[in-house]
Amino acid sequence: MAWLTSLLVLAVAAGGVPSAESIADQVRTELQARLQAQGSTADVSVAAVRLQSLPAGEVRFEVGDVAGRWPRARASVPLRVHVNDRLLRTLSVPVTARDMRPALVFEADYVARTNVDAIALQHSEVDMACRTGRVILERPVHSYRLRQDVRAGTPLTDALMEPTPEVQGMQNVELQVHHRGIALSAPAVALQDGRLGERIPVRPSYASEAVVATVTAPGKVQIHD
Q: pTM here?
């Protein structure tokens, strides 16, 4: 549902123009209040709203919703201009948002699936207005890896991390085979990620075709024959 909050009501003579700065300030106040209501700490800036001459009467301004994800670095908000309760025009007002916070950022580019132990991080101030996820201020434990590729300077958030599975695709694993009371083991290569208890394809060193095995521990899979 669109936000339609009265921002400023005043009477003007024919041809009169309200202060551009006062209208922009009211737009900013309204947008800032909305962000605070949703728990955002972003700070909003609004360009001066310059109007052409208006007919005489009671002028009322209403602000609509910012289209798309908000807050973000640059956007626009519709501003409806009413005179004597009739819509005269709708303006598109440029707005910006900044949400500077302390964060850990990546010192270099990294590819998805990189273990957190291999990641270099540094402290910095980052604009989080156009970022997703919760900022992580301490290095995660070693059992996490990157969910996606990242670039240097990107802040570390929970949206970028995921728990490392017990077995990772193309990892060398120990394949344990139980057959008629006899336990054997052989090296193999996991062909996909697998978490504890999951069944995944692996290629044993002694075979050219893959078999399906159950993940039993970090780096270990098992077949019951």
A: 0.66
Three-state DSSP state, 24: helix
Cα separations (Å) of 96 from 44, 77, 130, 167?
6, 10, 11, 45
Helix or strand or coil: residue 112? coil
Peptide bond into 204 cis (omega under 30): no
Each residue's pLDDT tens digit, 79-135: 998 888 889 889 999 999 999 999 999 999 999 999 998 999 999 999 888 777 888
Q: Which residues pair with 98 in a beta bridge?
A: 43
Please give the DSSP secondary-structure letter assigned to residue 17: -
- Here the tokens at position 115 are 């273990």
Query: Residue 88, class by beta-carbon neighbours within 10 Å (0-12 exposed, 13-18 middle, 19+ buried)?
Result: middle
